[in-house]
Records
---
Amino acid sequence: MLLNEAKNRIEKLKILINKYRHSRLVFDKPVVEESVEDSLKKELFDLEQAFPGLITPDSPTQRVGGAPLKEFKKFVHPERMLSFNDAFGEKDMLDWEERLKRIDPRATEGGFYCELKIDGLAIGLLYKDSVFQTGATRGDGLVGEDVTQNLRTIEAVPLNLTMGIIANAMMPIVVRGEVFITKKEFERINREQKSKSISAYANPRNLAAGSVRQLDPKITVSRRLDSFAYALVTDLGQQTHEDEHKILHRLGFKTNPHNKFCRNLAEVQEFRDYWEKHRERLDYEIDGIVVQVNSNQMFKKLGVVGKASRAAIAYKFSPKESTTKVKDITVSIGRTGTVTPIAILEPVEIGGTTVSRATLHNEDEIRRLDVRVGDTVVVGRAGDVIPDIKKVLKELRVGREKIFHFPEKCPVCGQPIKRIEGEAAFKCVNKNCSAIKREGIYHFVSKGAMNIDGVGPRIVDQLMDVGLIRDSADLYTLKKSDLLNLERFADKSAENTINSINSRKEAALDRFVFALGIPHVGSETALDLARNFGSLENISKVSLEDLLKIKDVGPVVAKSIYDWFRSDHNQKLLKKFTSAGLRVLKQELVQKSSKLKDKTFVFTGTLEELTREKAEELVREHGGNVSSAVSKETAYVVAGEESGSKFSKAKRLGVKIIDERNFLDMIK
């Protein structure tokens, strides 16, 4: 990037970051997720490191917090409250360590102290004669807001210190900590807001910050705030940061029991990865860990740069949202012919995964977002799975962005693309389009469908490209000799592939129906069809009226099933499967009991004794229902190791959460 381009980008980033920070910190009204701000600040920080001559005192990377609110008296901190620069991956951490070692080769020999980074509000506490005298927010680091009366309401902030551990009980003691609100308390307050028809609070951090800033302490005490102390500024003989936590605990402060000393960055990474996977089990929000050089002497020697100590860094968890640029917009053709626009992105880390593509869903969504090639965008993960563009940062446009036009013809077969009446989707009208067939075969062999092990998209592509298969039924006519002339196929691998295909020549009815790729028919609907009609022959002859009698099958799904089985093309495909030797079994579900009758279960995480499929089968055998989504109608969420967003949603909705052992006890 040229100097002028960097200068222009830096100025635009500063304006946008300040806009977002001001709205969040001064008015407690966040415009975007804080991880989006972090991503923009990281880009700004990296640009300033590349072009240090462009660093200015008013840059968001050179200051802490926001301006003090006018309603409170100002408080000058005895010692400046610093913040942290951010790291987002192992490379950032290695670069940080390398920078420290350039200052002193022994910088990290004493190891690191790691703390959970509480998503709350930083505070400074001053004690005189062992009595709590003043409490303040960080403000700009030098001057904060005097919120003593509100902090007095927090039980975790001691009003008197246990001073017997030090020689001079009269000396002033300065402590730093974090105020936060628990998830349970956050949910309680939002329920109250809802009952009063008042808007819910956006997140626990904003609620904690707003509660500390209340003029009336009675409101603050009603919020039941909590706090951890994390730093001792006054010299009480501590040699390490770990010592500080031990002394703070002895003084009567609440400190986080999960904090840990780590000998090296490998242990730091292990600590960080563990808590990223298990943070949902905590009763408060964390967004990463704080890592700092454990030796206090070395910490001071390494000094300060801008707003932050060199010897400490915030190692953030992979964000659920981040910013990146749109390099191009293309389209893909799905197994039902639906044309989906895809944004090609500059790679970015989101939720522990490098994302380089994001769905734009349809033409209406492109128009709603007004997304263009070259735009800077906010990218998230829809349902924590599919990358999705959330927002376009139009303020960062430079005038060279290009508007995307939807194609009139299929890019694969060249046939017309038409918009389906009453839908937002465009579709390729050519049923023989190779892209549609290819995607259909990908689906057919996938784990959730026929589960043909070893036959993935790459092998399907090979087989289609040389004309060995044109549809899923052709897989069952392949012979070992057909594969031996293909690249990457030796005698053993060819034999294994054919054996894998032949091992699936007998199929459960629900799996086969799902594998057919009937529009709107997922695995649960396929199972409902199998349970209600028992055989493929019965399903193929069923009336619309009978389809509509099935629970959760509406008019759109019923018509899709009805039309699919009455298509001449699909009838020929089913006969082709039979001729190739595929046998579809009749479905007979033996219900062992009605212990779980009318109860809906959702499974999340990894179970110890059962596979997910076996657990779901047990629910059905005992009269229950299985769902993939948590709702108010869910009776139980069965949580295994590394449970994710479903676990969180269940807690939020008050759905009962049980473990695998509880579940097995229910059906004994």
---
Amino acid sequence: MATLERIASPVRIQQTKADPGGWLSWLTTVDHKKIGIMYLISAFFFFVLGGIEALLIRVQLGAPNNTFLSPDTYNQIFTMHATTMVFLAIMPMLVGFGNYFVPLMIGARDMAYPRLNALSIWLFIFGGLMLYVSFITGGAPGAGWFAYAPLSGKAYSPTTGMDYWVLGLGITGVASIAGALNFIVTTLNLRAPGMTFNRLPLFVWTNLVTSFLIIFAFPSLTVAQVMLFFDRQFGTNFFNPSGGGDPLLWQHLFWFFGHPEVYIMILPAMGIISEILPTFSRKPIFGYAFIAYSSIAIGFLGFTVWAHHMFATGMGPLINGFFSAGSFLIGVPTGVKIFNWIATLYLGNIRMKTPLYFAVGFVAMFIIGGISGITLGSPVLDSQQTDTYYVVAHIHYVLFGGSIFALFAAFYYWFPKMTGRMYNERLGKMQFWLMLISFNITFFPMHILGIEGMPRRYYTYEPGMGWEIWNLIETIGAFALALSVLIFIWNMLTSIRNGALAPLDPWDAATLEWATTSSPPPAHNFDKIPTIYSRRPLWDTKYPDLEMAHEPGTRPMKRGEMLEQARARETAAVEESSIHMPSPTIAPMIVSFGVMVAGFGALYRFISPDVPVPFVALVGLAIIAAGIVRWVKDAHADLLH
């Protein structure tokens, strides 16, 4: 019987330089799995920072006329909370799982451009650190994560906080674009033999669509940030109406990025759910093609609805009607996914494990967020709800109830493969129930507050308005939510150290990441690149007597029969005795550090008024040049080898 081979014989790995080991191996790694872990750890660190900022906000709003935070400090915390969660936590954690598992799922040994992959993670880390330096250099940004002009201009944001926002996010934006290009090339060119697009795992599908969204959406934000930086630093008037500029131009540029950004954060989460539900229901995903192609539809339609964030700006009924129709239309491919997930669970042989709990929680919470999103797509209703806590409730049900629940599902689902250990199931389920209950206690009352007229972005409110009890309940819920995250951290740390050894395939899954010879997988992933014959390669080998999906009009075949026929058509495979892997290098870290230093040089252009030399910028450029020289040298050595 034909199977996906797990070759026991050792293979020889060719590298010009060996892994240095210890902490140096993390500074120099180009292994997509280590880079994925670095994304996850650094993004989770920022997630914790963003959570602390959220708790500070909730303490401030827990009682009327509270003076726990000053108005300016509240604006800084408010801005950094949203900026951190969107740019430094949710999206990079999803990128981390993509980095780790997309090459494994498509049968590749690494990403297409390993050094570019390393550059992406270091740009992300240094960009995030640069953003947080603003707290100690005159104050963090305070104009909101959307940085609306004229609030983000020099007149209303005189400190350097908004400049750090532009430069820090500009650096992380370069990281995102570089990473997206890498995902696209990897998925298009490094798929294993037989891994056609109609056989790609759905997590890979959603990462591919997301990468195209990043390529087309992020340049709009980058252009807007450059224009804002020039307005602030050089006196231009792109967004200043007194100088002929237009503040609404910022909103159009920002939301042309900002609404696809929502799908950049939710599509990979949908891919995670589409992998977990079939595994724990013991059924193939219902409507594979619908889920895959609806992701493409969501990606396309995501660029047609940006102005539904601007209904209150007076664009006119015709424009409002167009973007309202687009907002309703995009709910169709999203609804297709939800019905397909429910159909996958229907009559399945359900195994109630922690990843499934979080996956089902994702579906339920995302439905609530989607329903509130439909109401915001109506210009009439939006005119009443915009800039109220109803919008805050909606975005948290989509991104926390959606993306964060999916991320925790992914942590538990892939933890055995990434660490070789099993987590504590009882603690995992305890975290889920506490998180689900506290999440709804925290965010569902915001719908009520929004309908009652409580505005967002206000740092306090007067007593007697009927908002006190709901804000107190939300604050209590927020601290319970923080406790659920602490349970997760404890579970992960103790399980890495003392958890039971994990089998190679503890969930009886269907995709290739579970076919590796060890957990964690070896540096080269596969001793031999597998050949793929269906959408469920591992189930093909483990259950050859089951019928496989077949072309319309042809007879159903048993998997074993199909595999043997396919093998008979193959030429004899040549065993690989040695595998060339890229060598570790410090060059991407050096280049990224130089970019950060040059960013500081763009902000602090001269050492002093008496020394009109852009010393810091020149130092940054010199570091970048040294890193590029090292990069070329290491790449040349690899080619010669």
